[in-house]
Design a protein that fits this description.
This protein has 418 residues and is of the alpha/beta class. It has twelve helices and 16 strands. It folds into two domains: 344 residues, Spore Coat Polysaccharide Biosynthesis Protein SpsA, Chain A (Alpha-Beta Complex), CATH 3.90.550.10; 67 residues, no CATH class. Strand 2, helix 3 and strand 3 form a beta-alpha-beta unit.
Length: 418
């Protein structure tokens, strides 16, 4: 894999690095979660449904990580995450996309960004499982870019395995990777206009949500974001705000206390719009971002790296890595929509084995959502009983309602509905 020496030289010099936009921080314009139940929402859903039915939407999963923190030496997407059947993240997302095809009558092309480390096992995983019924022609893999880490003085670091020590270039590299792997061109040839972007670790993602697609499209937005209300002032999550008149994301680590703990006139948290890494992106906007002169800025981070010293011995040393973040494209968008969604319905990330944002908490949250659907239909589900509803049986509550004659009126043990 080649090294972009021109880019590395610029980064070492301090060029192409992220600088805060400046200007007063203000709350972003946010469409509240309550909008989903309004009469106006039906128009947005209809518009999004039309885009799906006419084949103008693709899905992109960022899946370059390994599942080492979750106890497996494999791509994170193969982690068994559902509460009863233990389906993997990849399986679950594939079933959601297959359910969309059945509903709207058109395939949704799936693009999966892998890393150099997990590309081959990810491809093999899908091949061995027949691409989960999606068809190999509708699943496209592309590899995330890499950048060298350097010493604080700007020198390359030699890795233990030979060659220059490299690190992934961040999820902002999705744009460049889509271009360099020919995916943007493929999307154009397929008639794709809109990209639904999400990261692999959240099983509650509403993949290609027609409401979100429709709102984004109807507003002529180039890049849009879903948010959830922060659980607390100190939740370590970036917040969508306005700064310098532009929609942007303010990183948790960059928030001054006067912003982090700011309240409105009712004493409520002022900057609450937590980023959940779900975006709508126009394909032509992605092309613009990857054109010369408009690439995303890079963030500089100090880290400890095991590399070879001057004598060729492995040693732990200070290093600098560079990575870009996809949300830094938001200020480049002329128009952007920010949609609030209910945390309990759409956000259950899997980052650790136990505790907050863990495999344990995510499984429970998935079960809680499905149990709430059943409860709304009068089905008795006692506390402590796990429930899992397959996307191929019901993609949402509305679809489940049409199949209530196939569901028992009481569920007294862990149950899979599929």
């Amino acid at each position: 894999m080649g090294v972009d020496l021109d880019l590395v030289s610029r980064l070492v010099r301090g060029d192409s690095l992220y600088t805060p936009p400046g200007g007063e921080v203000e709350p972003a314009d946010i469409i509240p979660a309550s909008f989903a139940s309004s009469a106006e929402a039906k128009e947005a859903v209809s518009r999004g449904s039309d885009l799906l039915a006419s084949g103008r939407v693709a899905a992109v999963i960022v899946a370059g990580g390994q599942g080492s923190r979750l106890g497996i030496d494999a791509p994170k997407g193969v982690v068994e995450v559902t509460p009863v059947r233990g389906k993997s993240l990849f399986c679950l997302f594939a079933e959601k996309i297959l359910a969309l095809r059945r509903r709207f009558g058109h395939a949704v092309p799936l693009f999966i960004m892998t890393s150099r480390e997990n590309d081959a096992p990810t491809r093999t995983y899908f091949q061995e499982r027949g691409f989960f019924g999606l068809g190999s022609q509708n699943v496209h893999f592309f590899v995330q870019g890499m950048l060298p880490s350097v010493t604080p003085e700007g020198r390359f670091i030699l890795s233990e395995t030979g060659g220059v020590f490299m690190n992934p270039d961040g999820h902002g590299g999705t744009f460049r990777a889509l271009r360099d792997n020919g995916c943007l061109g493929l999307m154009a040839s397929l008639g794709i206009e809109e990209i639904f972007y999400f990261q692999v670790d959240n099983p509650l993602v509403k993949v290609c949500d027609p409401l979100f697609i429709g709102l984004h499209s109807a507003n002529g937005a180039q890049m849009s974001t879903k948010v959830v209300r922060k659980a607390s002032y100190d939740e370590r999550v970036g917040v969508i705000v306005k700064q310098g008149g532009r929609t942007c994301l303010l990183e948790y680590s960059d928030m001054a206390d006067e912003v982090r703990y700011a309240t409105d006139h009712r004493g409520h948290m002022l900057y609450w719009a937590g980023n959940m890494a779900v975006h709508m992106i126009r394909r032509d906007f992605a092309e613009t971002v990857t054109s010369r002169g408009t690439e995303l800025p890079f963030h500089r981070a100090a880290k400890k790296i095991v590399g070879l010293d001057a004598a060729g011995n492995p040693t732990r040393m200070d290093g600098i890595k560079f990575e870009s973040f996809i949300f830094d494209a938001l200020p480049l968008a002329r128009r952007s929509v920010t949609l609030e969604v209910a945390r309990e319905e759409e956000f259950a990330p899997v980052k650790n084995m136990t505790g907050t944002d863990s495999l344990v908490s995510s499984r429970q949250l998935q079960s809680n959502l499905h149990a709430s659907w059943l409860g709304r239909m009068g089905v008795d589900v006692p506390a402590g009983v796990l429930v899992e509803i397959s996307p191929l049986f019901a993609l949402d509550f509305e679809e489940l309602q049409h199949k209530q004659d196939r569901i028992p009126r009481s569920i007294q043990e862990d149950t899979y509905v599929g």
